[in-house]
Fold CmcJ-like methyltransferase.
Amino acid sequence: METHIQYIIRDPILRVEKAFTTDFPIDHVNGVEGIRMQNIHWEKRQVIVEEIVDPRSWKLDVHGFCFLRAETRLDPEKAYKQKDEVKDAFWHEIEAILHHHFPQYSRIEAFDFTLRKRDPEYPVKNRGYNPEYENPSGGAHADFSQQGGPLVLQHCFQGQDKFWEGKDFDMINVWRPLRGPTDDWPLAMCDYTSISTNDDLVLNDAIKRDLVVECSLMHHSDTHRWHYLKDHDVDTLLVFRNSDSLGKRARGFHAAVCNPNTTGPPRESVEVRLVAFY
């Protein structure tokens, strides 16, 4: 599939300023000269995203992502209307599935439940923050960096620092369509073995309404190899590692991509973020 991915431009300003982004308007901030919502600039780069033929051939510790076949029960309508009521049950399902497939983890705790529903006009019009659901994310990134993981844990598990300080853990995402199968704006994964961690990655402060999270963004490289699963169905879970406490393991850099051949309705998806302790 020939499409495009948003990358961070190799801007000289990033040599003297740390990259940062915000996800809320700053129009109300008056009297502050030069205030910016971000100091990074995105560029569209044409890429080939290869269709995954055998999902079983992808390994979390090699490529940064893998696929699991598992049935999960989540009513799409209740997910939107009764989010707080259904997320705990879905969290428990995902935790149990991960424990079964990754017995090396001694403890797994979910902390985030995100719904995405593509606006029919996205990305021409991006309506910004929506508390009920989000649009796909088209920039190449990993949700957390090595330092960003503990920041999120401090926010989500307040007063429980002693449970993770000094421990080895992974920050994991589990993603699947909310309704499927779907091939609209699929989530593309970059094979970690094709990434230069020294040259291709940028640490970014993602400034949100209630916390600051450090994530990792990507510069373009012709060496990157992108892949997607065609007609992704609800019983196929995409599992990827955003970061780990040691900064040594494969990570799943990802981006939603426009499929020029899609015939289905706008994509809806659900993702769970978890911390998995060794």
Summary: The two ends are 37 Å apart (CA to CA).
